[in-house]
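Progress narrative, work stream C.
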Amino acid sequence: MHRKNKNLTVFLFLLPALALFVGILIYPIVASVHHSLFEYRTFTDPGQYVGLQNYKDLFTPKYDFGRAVINALILAALSVFIQLPLSLGLALMLGKGIKGERFYLSVYFMPVLISAVVIGMLWEKIYNPIYGLITKAFEFFQWTGLPPEGLLGNKKTALLAVFIPTIWQYVGYHMLLMYAGVKGVSPELREAAMLDGATDGQINRYVIIPCIKPIIKVSIIFAITGSLKSYDLIKVFAKDAYNCSYKVPSLMLVRYAFHNAGGIASAIAVIMIVMCFAFAILINWLFKERNIYGRK
C-alpha cells in the first residue's frame, strides 16, 4: 500500500512536466503529421485528404524542396567541418591558460548575445555591392573577382556568404561549451603527459579531446540540427523564399504556412523533424563507445 502511494505521489509530481512535454512537443508533431496528409485551400478549409501527395509534390519543380534540403545539408557540413574545429581550437588555446583569458572569452562569446536580425542587417551592409566594406576593400587593394551583383546576389557565392555570419555568431557558443569541458579535465592528466615528454599537440590529441568527446558530440548535434532549422539570419538576407540561392526548409515552411498551403507546410515540418531526429541518432551511434568485439 505504501509503495502504491509513493508511486502515485511521484506520478503527480511528474504530471505537470509530462503535460507540458506532450502539449508542447508530442501533440504538435502528431498534428503536423496529420495535417501533412491533407490539402487546405483556405485557413478555414477543413481540408481534403490527399495522403502522401504533399510529400511527392515537394520534390517537383514547382516547389523544388530538394534544393532547400541540399542547402541546409551544405550549411550543416560547413558547421561541422569549419565552425566546430575553430571552436575547438579556441577552446584548447584558452583552456590551457593564457593572459587575458576572461577577456577573450567575453569577446568570442559576445556575438551569441546579439540578435540574429541585427547580425543579418549588419552583414547585409558589409556585403552591399555598392558601399559595403568588402566592396571597398576590393577597390582599395585593387583586387578582382568580386561579383558585380555582390556576394549575396551571385548564385555561386550566396550560400557561403550566408554561412560566414553564422560562423561569426555561433563559434563562441560552441567554444564556450568545449572550453568548460577542457577546464573540467583533471590537471593531473595533463601533468602526467608532460612528465612523459608529450607536446602540447599530443596532450590535446590523446588526453584533452578524448575527455571532452561527450561535449563535442553535443556540439555536433547542435550544429547540424541548428543548420537544418536555420531561419532568422537567412530570412534577413532572403528577399524571395522561392527563388533565392540560399533558401532552406524553414523559409519555405513559413512562406507556405501563410499562403493557404498548410498541408505543404506541415509536410516540410515533418521532414525537418525526421531529419533532425535521424542526425541526432546517427551522431549518438557514431560516438558510442565500443570495445574490440564491437559491443558497447
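Work stream C, second folded protein:
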Amino acid sequence: MIMKKLTAFLLLFSLFLSPAVMLAGDVDSSAAPAATEMAAEAAPEAPADSAADGTTVTETEKGFREILKDKFIEGDYIWMSPILICLIIGLAVAIERIIYLNMATINTKKFLNELESALKSGGAQAALTVCQNTPGPVAGIFAEGLNRADEGIDVVEKAVVSYGGVEMGKMEKALPWLSLFIALAPMLGFLGTVIGMIFAFDKIEAAGDISPTVVAGGIKVALLTTVGGLIVAMILQIFYNYIMSKIEGLVNEMEEASVNFVDMLVKSGVAKSGNSNS
C-alpha cells in the first residue's frame, strides 16, 4: 500500500514537473535569440552571408521537445489528446508494475539458506518468521506452506500450488489495462487519419479544386495522428514485454524454490509424507 502511494506521488510529481521543464526550455529558447540580437547590435556590421548563416543556425537550434509540441498542436489536440492520455496512463501502469516486481525480486538462494537454518534451529515457527520478514511472492508462498506443515506434506504442496496462483494474479494485476492502451493508441491514430481525410475531401468538395493547399491540412492531421498512435503503442509494447519477462522469471524462481522448499520440509521432519500421525 505504501509502495503504491509512493508511486502515485512520483507520477503526479513528474506530471507537474514536465510543464515546468517545458516552460524553462521555452524561456531558454526565447532568451537565446535575445542574446543573439544584443550581440549583433554590439558587434560591427557583418556580411550578408554571416547573417544568413545565423538565421539558419537559429532555425536548426529548435529542440526535440519544441518539435514534439509543434507536431502535437499541428495534429489537432482533439485527436492527439486521447493518444497522449493513453501514453500517460499506460506509463503509469507500467512504472507501478515495474516497481512492484523489482521489490518482489529477492535473492532466492540466500533466502532458502536462511530458511533452512531457521528450520534446523527453531523449527516451523522460526522459518515462518523469516518468511514474514522477507518481501516477495516466494516468501508469501512458503509462509502459506508452513502454516499447513502440521497437516502433512501433501497439504503443503496443494497450499503452495494454490497460493502460487494467487501471487501470479497479483503480479499480473493491471496488465490488461496496459494491453488495452497498446491496442487503443493506434486505433485512435487511425481514427484521426480517417477524420482528417474526410475533412480533406470536404475541403476539395467545397473549393472545387484539388490543389495541395486545399488538402494539405487534413492530410497532415491524418498522418500526425497515425504516427502518434503508433509511437505510443511501440513505447508501451516495450514496457509490456519487459514486465512479462520479469513475471516469467519470478514464476520460474517460484516453481524451482517450491520444489526445494518441499524437500527441505521433508528432510527437516517439519512435514511428513501423507497424513499419518505415527
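Residues 1-62 form one domain. No further action is required on this item.
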